[in-house]
Amino acid sequence: MARLLAQRGIDTPAKALPFLNPDLYQPAPPTALLGVETAANLLYEAIAHDQNILVWGDFDVDGQTSTALLVTALRTLAGDDRVRFHVPNRFEESHGIKIDKLRAKLAEADVPIHLLLSCDTGIAEAPAVGFAKDQGLTVVVTDHHDFPAEFQHLTPGVDPLWGLPAASVGAESVRRADAIVNPKFLPVGDPLRTLPGVGVAYKLVQQLYTLAGRGGEEEELLDLVALGIVADVAEQVYDARYLLQRGLARLRVTRRAGLLALMNIARIDPSVLTADSIGYQLGPRMNALGRLDDATDAIELLTTRDAIRAGQLAAKLERLNQDRRLLSSQTTRAALELIEREPGLLDYNALVLAHPNWHAGVVGIVASKLVDQFGKPTVLMLNPPGQPARGSARSVPGVDIGAAMAACGALLLTHGGHPGAAGVSLLPEKINAFRRELSRQVELHRDDSVQIGLQIDLATTLEQLDLALVAELARLAPFGQGNPTPQFVCYGLAVVDDRRMGREGTHRKLQVRSATAAEKAAALTVVWFGGADVDLPAGPIDLVFTLNVNEFKGERTLQLMYVDSRPAQPLQAAEASVVPAARRVYDWRDQERPLAQLPAPGQAVWYAEGERLERVSPGVAYAPRTQASQGTTGQPLVLWSIPPTPALLHWLLESSGASEIHLCAHSTGDDALLTVLQDVGRMCKFALGRDGVVDVGRMAARLGLTESIVRQSLLWMEKRGIVQVVEWLDGDRAQIAAGAGQPVEAGAAELQAELEAQLAEVRAYRRFFRRAKVGALGVE
Question: Which secondary structure element, helix H or strand E, spans residue 463, and what is its range?
């Protein structure tokens, strides 16, 4: 238990006690959330003057719970007839506040609306905020999403109104809001920064109830907070974890008719409800409403006191969830078929797929499944004929997909989201360009400090596992983003029984014991969801799993939940760390002609690229990057020219396996924009005289530049009407045709600026490479 806590950075009793026991945690006061005090005062004044309030939410579970929480609290203080709400329809409106719909809602109200209050949306809705202010409304924005591009240079900790830069039209419009509450205004590491929309709404209500002299009553709403935090996959640290712990306790004794009906239909015992119950049972049912129907019913489900009506709504959610499962399964199969037909799609840093018949409500779910399967950020879009493509993105740890998407903004119509998930729309003809640019941006927005791969917390033996250990681990709960369920590994297990399970036989149940144990030794059960048709390694296996308890007819037994496996490896091999020997480095950078002192090409791996190679270095043969992996492992590596990026340098070192490095650092390429464009154009002309196929990797090697620069050059030439990229083939090859000669101005300037920026990066790195000390280059 202590080891697991320490691995999570909780390495002292002072940190561990409040993490394990919410009674010992000191939550931040609501006023610590910038904008809350102003927003609560405005709401309190509106209630005191009998003004009418319109709450504008969102259709996912975070938006549903945020809306229900605010509606419940405001009706308690102001009365039912003073508070109205609207949840956008995914298919008619999508996310956010659309002016046409807002105009209609204001017109249809039987009484005038005085105050517009957003939740889980609003920070990027500058036009709607401006419109509402023009209609004379007080506007309060509460949100937790990342800021749009015009807000990216804010100073953390500044006032959320006056801290917005006035230079941008969008920022100026949002500045017209009377209050803005968003935890993203707080610096990284602030205990309130990870709050989802429902957490922000709760902090606002907490302050509002204090003003009304009813402080403490807001705790009745914590069951909604727990739902939203888990369903939104919020990072469960600091105040978010505290609110979830409190919310789960409240949810286990909730009197909310809709939640009781939903738990009944999902066969959940409220008294033992966990975060997993929300994540795998309640959350999907509630999300199904917003994905396939109108989420307005969710607000009624969460606020009604009528048990009969609650039962009807819960039954509707159950039916929709069954439909959602079927659609998700069909879409997953279709996505995998696309990948099977075009395996080159997996060569990019992000998987981008589109299909005209996919359902908008399930692409996000399927994207998450593909992230798990392929280990890379994934975007799934539907692109019906004659309409913009639109869809959802999901990411992997260490890649901020929201920021990567924003960096592709020149290609998109709309975008927005979090580090882990985002939404996007764009013209169908730009999907291929978006795929290439997103691949580049994912690499730029990757946090190298985040380790990728299968996270294993502890190695153990089957004999160490029992129900007492499960009870100890439960103290670390709730598990989720920021506090993952502990994963264990056991080496050398024998599978003594293997059978299908489930109504349709799609799951699997194994019985395992140590391969060295006696034949009659007790075996443990392993449950493998969705594993019925997966090939299991023959013979002993190394098994990664989580721990769980199976309760059946009053009997509690230990069971392992399958995560992954591989053929058993010798224990020392499984645990060994390979530490490469130090490389010997010869520094020839100050010598003009070290050729005579260098190992010959047959005795070493050479790297010598660039269009000017023959002119600058007579007698040195062209040796592209692709040859680095073709030599004999351990041969010397001669770096005659300078790699364009540190990433390529590291690849050359690893691919060659060189034990000795010769640094020469000659400039054999021309990094000037005009020259690069001329060289790419010449290569395209050559290709058009043959089969019209260009290979981006080979072009980059010939020029001594990056593949991204070549791709951007092709896009620029397409904008100028010089060539036309007909389609992208397998790998990084493109079929091109002669352009029509008609330049397209839109986006051309942005492409040229991006090209110049990338070339500037290459020039800066090459200057560094020539001058830096050997130890700073990472070659030793």
Answer: none
The CA distance from 436 to 443, in Å, is 11
Based on C-alpha coordinates, what's the Rg of the chain? 29
Question: DSSP character for 399?
Answer: B
Helix segments in 480-590, DSSP class H: 571-575
The two tokens of residue 282 are: 């309640």
**Best CA proximity match to 237, nearest among 19, 34, 3, 7:** 19
Backbone angles phi, psi at 367, to 5 degrees: -60, -40
Taking residues 490-515, what's their average pLDDT? 88
Model confidence at 599: pLDDT above 90? no
List the CATH code of the domain at 673-769.
1.10.10.10
Q: How far is CA 168 from CA 45, 127, 173, 536, 577, in A?
A: 31, 13, 9, 57, 52
Q: Could you read off the pLDDT of 225-238 as tens digits, one per residue?
A: 999 999 887 888 89
Residue 721: is its pLDDT beyond 70? Answer: yes
Lowest mean pLDDT of 239-253, 629-643, 673-687, 707-721, name the range: 629-643
Residue 268, phi then psi, degrees to nearest 5: -105, 130
Enter the tokens of residue 404: 């990567």
202, 278, 772 from 327: Cα distances, Å: 34, 21, 56
Give the range among 126-130, 387-391, 490-494, 634-638 with minimum mean pLDDT.
634-638
Architecture of domain 23-221: Alpha-Beta Complex (3.90)
| pTM exceeds 0.85, yes or no | no
Assigned CATH for 458-563? 2.40.50.460
- Strands 389-394 and 421-426: what pairing? antiparallel
Residue (of 33, 389, 328) closest to 201 by Cα position = 33
Interior/surface letters 169-203, b for 16+ CB within 10 angstroms, e for the rest: ebbebbbebbbbbbbbbbeeebbbbbbbbbbbbbb
Tell me, yes or no, if the two domains 342-444 and 673-769 fold the same way. no
If one compares 599 and 571, the residue with the highest pLDDT of the two is 599
Question: How far apart, in Å, do the first and last CA atoms of the chain sit?
Answer: 39
Q: ∠389-231-322 over CA atoms, to 5°?
A: 70
**Residue of 218, 231, 243 lying closest to 65 (CA atoms):** 231
| For residue 421, pLDDT beyond 90 | no
From CA 487, how far away is CA 52, in angstroms rounded?
51
Q: Which CATH number does the domain 342-444 belong to among 3.40.50.150, 3.10.310.30, 3.40.720.10, 3.20.20.220?
A: 3.10.310.30
Beta carbons within 8 Å of 597's beta carbon, 6+ residues apart? 588
pLDDT in the model for residue 13: 92
Cβ atoms of 177 and 161 closer than 8 Å:
yes
Residue 126 contacts by C-beta under 8 Å, 6 or more apart in sequence? 148, 169, 170, 171, 172, 173, 174
Domain ranges of the chain: 23-221, 342-444, 458-563, 673-769
CA 643 vs. chain centroid, Å, equals 31
The predicted structure's pLDDT at residue 554: 77
